[in-house]
Amino acid sequence: MVELREETETGVTFNLGSVEKIPLGEGREYQVAGCLIAIFRERSGALFATQARCPHRDGHLADGIIGAGRVICPLHAFKFELSTGRPLLCSCPSLATYSVRLNQDGEILLTV
């Protein structure tokens, strides 16, 4: 269950629970404030958050391959930069990106 954590001038922060729910090198989808958001955890431990669906054909990006700061859509192999949402070598619109971090307890905090 997604828990409202804090509301500030920059957005609303939600506690998504333990980072251990996302294995290294994978992504997971979360329903947050009426939006489907993908959280990615690179093998380095870095976290990224983007819209969950590819703007090209609505592929579930959390099911894609991630690495080197990028995600590859599982449907058509379109690539996106995780930090900016920018498409790489394709004509898709950019992905929406969100602020994500860990708290001292290893819980994912997402600001939308």
CATH architecture: 3-layer Sandwich
N-to-C span: 17 Å
> How many individual β-strands?
11
Estimated share of beta-strand residues: over 45%
Alpha-carbon Rg, integer: 13 Å
Highest-level CATH class? Mainly Beta
Shape: globular
The CATH homologous superfamily corresponds to: Rieske [2Fe-2S] iron-sulphur domain
Averaged pLDDT: 92
What structural category do the secondary elements indicate?
mainly beta
> How would you sum up the major sheet?
7 strands, antiparallel
Order of helices and strands: EEEEEEEEEEE
Low-confidence runs: none
Number of spatially distinct domains: 1
**Percentage of residues in helical conformation:** under 10%
Summarize the structure.
The protein is an all-beta fold and 112 residues long. The protein has strands spanning 3-8, 11-18, 26-32, 35-41, 47-51, 65-67, 70-72, 79-81, 87-88, 97-102, 107-111. It is 0% helix and 49% strand.
Can you put this structure into words, describing what you see?
The chain has 112 residues and is mainly beta. It is 0% helix and 49% strand. The strands form 2 sheets. Strands 1-2-11-10-5-4-3 form a 7-stranded antiparallel beta sheet, with no helix packed on it. The chain is globular and about 35 Å long. The model has no long low-confidence stretch (mean pLDDT 92).
Set out the fold topology.
Blueprint: E1 3-8, E2 11-18, E3 26-32, E4 35-41, E5 47-51, E6 65-67, E7 70-72, E8 79-81, E9 87-88, E10 97-102, E11 107-111
Antiparallel strand pairs: 1-2, 2-11, 3-4, 4-5, 5-10, 6-7, 7-8, 8-9, 10-11
